[in-house]
């Protein structure tokens, strides 16, 4: 599809309307970057069907505002570079959000925590 066709169809306006509903900056940017691709259409529709079915069955996935990881990783790319405390905290938040979403999508119950070795030790004579 040509860029002019997308303008006539007000595609950027549609993307902005959808992006406004995204829960995070990363989500908004991902929506704005979408372009029609006939080769991907069926796969995206299948994925959408799966997400709708999952939301009906298990509720909305636990998502939240997540930082954009690209700029953080770019800052860490040069050899010897180190991330600042705020950047490390952003990575931590992204990992927490990913774990929460993963746990929400996993139908298995959470594992039972193992007792620490000290709690497993038997008392003398016991």
Explain what the structure shows.
- This protein has 126 residues and is an all-alpha fold.
- 61% of the residues lie in helices and 0% in strands.
- It has helices at 3-8, 11-19, 25-32, 38-58, 69-76, 85-105, 117-120.
- Helix 2 packs antiparallel against helix 3 (25-32).
Brief sketch in words of this structure:
This protein is an all-alpha fold and 126 residues long. 61% of the residues lie in helices and 0% in strands.
Task: List the main descriptive attributes of the protein structure presented here.
126 residues, mainly alpha
Please tell me the overall pLDDT.
80
What would you call the quaternary organization?
A: single chain
Poorly predicted tracts of residues: none
Overall form: flat
Largest sheet: none
Structure class: mainly alpha
Estimated share of beta-strand residues: under 5%
Q: Report the total helices.
A: 7
Write the layout of secondary structure elements.
Elements: H1 3-8, H2 11-19, H3 25-32, H4 38-58, H5 69-76, H6 85-105, H7 117-120
Helix pairs in contact: 2-3
